[in-house]
Amino acid sequence: MSHASDTSGAGAPIRYEQVAAAAENLEHRGAEPTLHRVLELLGGGSPHLVQRHLGAWRDARPAPEPTPARLPESLLEALERELARRGEAGLAEGRRLAEEARADATTLAESGEGLERRNAELESRLALVERESREAREQRDALRAERDTLRDDLEQERQLARQAQEELIQQRQQVALLREQLEEAQQARLTAERETRAVEEERVKAERAQAVAESQRDGALEQAREKAEQIGQLKREMQEERARQRQEVTEMRAEQKARLDAVERAKQEAQKQAQEAAQRATKAEIRAEALQATQNALKSRMDAMQVQQRQRGMRSPGERD
């Protein structure tokens, strides 16, 4: 396509390089380089000539890669319907412009070079509308594919959440079991203490019996001597019993400590899994914010297309006259 300079009426010629620089300036500022904005930035000029240079600038640029968007399913469906509606409207506008171009082609053939330029401009506008309509359909298809991906991701997140819930229930059951075992150990310790007190009472009784025997040793020395041996044997048995009970208490305390340590480890593991679930939720929120930003960018582009189409509709009657 030729980028030669043209003139419009009595004004200075608008060159392709000026239009390209203005469009790139608008893009750097985050604005869509529409015909209205380019004319404002240039301070005027022929809309026909600027539109032709702007179309040439767009054709010379590589097609942008569609940015994958992650939107909520309800918003995807609403956006899909809106894109379809606007795509159909853009296609209808393109067909209308094509009819105008065909109707004007007969007149242009009779009106000379000026009307030929108008026909070329209308063809460029038609190509632009068709290209934007095609891009809208491609974006709609990309959004549908992204919606399906989001559904799969959501189902996977739900499965992970269910697994985490099941693991948490199992851990709670283990904690309850450990608590029951702890209570049993405490009950066993109380039983051992009661038995120890009973043995101590027996020892006291034995000592009392020994005292009675000693008071009666003048009459029954041999009996007292035998009783003393029995008491000695009982003491040895009592000492052995105490040692055994102390060993059992020590072992029960060690077992109780091990169970408490296991309960603490299970509690820490449950807290860790809860934190990981919270992190996954935070990532999902970040993806939702990115999807919202993409939605806003798409809406801005569609609004710019509507403004551009309204401007073309407002100019068409005067240009045909």
Automatic annotation (TrEMBL):
Positions of the UniProt region annotated as Disordered: 189-321
DNA-binding is among the record's keywords: yes
UniProt entry tagged with the keyword Endoplasmic reticulum: no
Single GO MF descriptor: DNA binding
Bias (Basic and acidic residues): 191-208, 215-270
Domain of life: Bacteria
InterPro entries (UniProt xref): KfrA_DNA-bd_N
A Pfam family per the record: KfrA_N
Alphabetically ordered keywords of this record: DNA-binding
Biased composition (Low complexity): 271-281
Domain KfrA N-terminal DNA-binding: 16-146
Protein name per the record: Replication region DNA-binding N-term
Protein's organism: Halomonas shengliensis
